[in-house]
Amino acid sequence: MDDRLIYHFGRSRCDGGAHLAHLLGGKGAGLAEMCRIGINVPPGFTIATSVCNLYQESGSVPENVVQRLPEALSLLGQEVDLEFGNPDRPLLVSVRSGSVQSMPGMLDTVLNVGLNDEVAVKLGAMRGGRFAYDSYRRLIQMYAASVLQLEDRIFEERYKEKQKELSLSAGESITNQEALRELVEEFKQLVRTHTGQEFPKMFRFSSVMQ
Q1: Domains of the chain by residue range
Q2: Per CATH, is 1-81 categorized as 3.40.50.2300?
Q3: Residue 9: closest CA among 137, 29, 204
Q4: CA distances from 133 to 117, 126, 172 (A)
Q5: Which CATH class is domain 84-209?
Q6: How is the chain split among helix, strand and coil, in percent rounded to 5?
Q7: Same fold yes or no, 1-81 and 84-209
Q8: Does 123 score more than 80 pLDDT?
Q9: Overall average pLDDT of the 172-183 stretch
Q10: What keyword terms does UniProt attach to this protein (predicted)?
Q11: Which of 12, 21, 108, 193 is most deeply packed, by most CB within 10 A?
Q12: What is the pLDDT of residue 1?
């Protein structure tokens, strides 16, 4: 029996495949299988479905998984020459839930994990402020909805109000860097108001798994 809890896929190694769908979920098994047969897929890692079972039993992420996450993130960073938490070479990751069976629209996703105030400034200098702050406000909204269980509409309503302030129609995206930076601060205030918590300045990756 395979007792690993974290399965990597990328150029340097591929731990799984289609035969492990019961452990990797459909999405994770599909990515591993594509990697195994030589298709170029972005590197990543899948946390086994057994960890979800352990979490549901205890209410917390198992400590042995938490201890292995830095190594998993380090290996992922080596694949793309980036480092999680390093503002100068920031590794941003997407955390996606999965299951053995397809469940369209039922599973959670948190994008851009690894962004914080310092990383956003550096990323803005490298890729442009619009990209950095739009990515940041999306992270806050997704994290709040998926992890903190806040209603998505709280953030959508504030976004629509900002569109009106900028004389934009409902179908137009906010592209102004300063407006997006303001939204980031306003979204953080919404988290503070509705939960009494500060939005994390530095992520413990395991918190997003919950």
Answers
A1: 1-81, 84-209
A2: no
A3: 29
A4: 9, 12, 17
A5: mainly alpha
A6: 55, 10, 35
A7: no
A8: yes
A9: 98
A10: Kinase, Pyruvate, Transferase
A11: 21
A12: 40
Which helix (DSSP H) or strand (DSSP E) does residue 33 occupy?
helix 21-36
Radius of gyration of the chain measured on its C-alpha atoms: 18
User: Which tokens in the block code for residue 130?
Assistant: 């619009």
Say how far apart CA 127 and CA 132 lie, in whole Å. 7
SS3 7: strand
How many angstroms separate the Cα of 13 from the Cα of each of 45, 97, 117, 167?
A: 10, 22, 33, 50
Contacts of 144 (CB under 8 A, 6+ apart): 150, 154, 155, 187, 190, 191, 195, 199
**Which tokens sit at 64?**
């042995």
| pLDDT for 157 | 98
- What is the per-residue pLDDT across 15-48, written as a single tens digit (0 to 9) for each? 999 999 999 999 999 999 999 999 999 999 999 9
19 DSSP assignment: G
The average confidence (pLDDT) of the chain is 91
